[in-house]
Amino acid sequence: MCAVVGGRQPVGVLAGRPFTDRHVSREVLECVLSAAAWSPSGSNIQPWHACVATGGPLAEIKKRASERLTAGDP
Predict the structure, then answer these.
(1) Which of 5, 23, 41, 74 has the smallest C-beta neighbourhood within 10 Å, fewest atoms?
(2) What is the pLDDT of residue 54?
(3) Is 33 in a helix, a strand, or coil?
(4) In the chain, where does DSSP find H-type helix?
(5) CA–CA separation, 50 vs 32, rounded Å?
(6) DSSP 8-class letter at 17
(7) 8 Å CB contact between 51 and 27
(8) The CA-based dihedral angle spanning residues 28, 31, 49, 23, taken in that order and rounded to the nearest 10 degrees
(9) pLDDT tens digit sequence for 45-74
(10) For residue 52, what are the CA distances in angstroms to 4, 30, 57, 73?
C-alpha cells in the first residue's frame, strides 16, 4: 500500500488542516483512490464513488459553490 495510507494519522488531526492551492500529482491521487477502494464498509459493499476535477471544471465548481454560499444556499 502507498506511503500515504501507511503514515496515516487520526481523523481529528487531518480535519483541522487548511486547503492549499498546491498541485497534487496524478500518482498520489491514484494511490489515495486505490486505497479508498480497498477500505472496509458495512457489508463489504464499498458503495462510494469519487470524482477528480482539475483546471476549468474545478474553477467552475469553485465559482458555483462560492455563488451559492454568498446567496445563503448551503
Answers:
(1) 74
(2) 87
(3) helix
(4) 3-6, 11-15, 26-37, 55-70
(5) 11
(6) P
(7) no
(8) 0
(9) 878 788 889 899 999 999 999 999 999 987
(10) 18, 10, 10, 23
Contact call for residues 39 and 10 (beta carbons, < 8 A): no
- Cell numbers linked to 63: 465559482
pLDDT in tens, 13-46: 455 567 788 888 999 999 988 888 888 888 878 7
Residue 70: all three cell numbers together:
454568498
Is the separation of the CB atoms in 5 and 29 below 8 Å? no
- Cell triple for residue 65? 459553490
Q: For residues 66 and 50, give the distance between their C-alpha atoms in angstroms, rounded to a whole number.
A: 21
